[in-house]
């Protein structure tokens, strides 16, 4: 023992530096292959290199709007957890029809509303 106590290795001796995570916007988690796979589902053959950032920007704006409205429904119900039905009611309110298994059985009160508006289809 060198008698230094619990102070560590001192000022001059440093251990190996860890690999640090670079902070970035979470929208960059939507990678190029993910965007390509979504485009391939809609029979897109080629994608320009400049389109990826544009798609991320449009997707971020869309998701912010969806989440804000879903949070409004959640707060009105005095809950802290957003449910799939909150997103479903938000999509009906915005006249966006999401084709997903949770929303296939639409309550009778909402079916007349969906027939009245022409929905934009989003396939997940």
From TrEMBL:
Gene3D superfamilies in the record: Histone, subunit A (1.10.20.10)
Disulfide bond in keyword set: no
GO molecular function, one term: DNA binding
Family as reported in the entry's similarity comment: Belongs to the histone H4 family.
N-terminal signal peptide: none
InterPro entries on file: Histone-fold (IPR009072), Histone_H4 (IPR001951)
Principal subcellular localisation of the protein: nucleus
Subunit structure: The nucleosome is a histone octamer containing two molecules each of H2A, H2B, H3 and H4 assembled in one H3-H4 heterotetramer and two H2A-H2B heterodimers. The octamer wraps approximately 147 bp of DNA.
Record keywords, A-Z: Chromosome, DNA-binding, Nucleosome core, Nucleus
Location in or out of the cell: Chromosome; Nucleus
Protein known as: Histone H4
Record SMART domains: H4
Keyword set includes Nucleus: yes
Function according to Swiss-Prot or TrEMBL: Core component of nucleosome. Nucleosomes wrap and compact DNA into chromatin, limiting DNA accessibility to the cellular machineries which require DNA as a template. Histones thereby play a central role in transcription regulation, DNA repair, DNA replication and chromosomal stability. DNA accessibility is regulated via a complex set of post-translational modifications of histones, also called histone code, and nucleosome remodeling.
Cellular component GO terms, alphabetical: nucleosome; nucleus
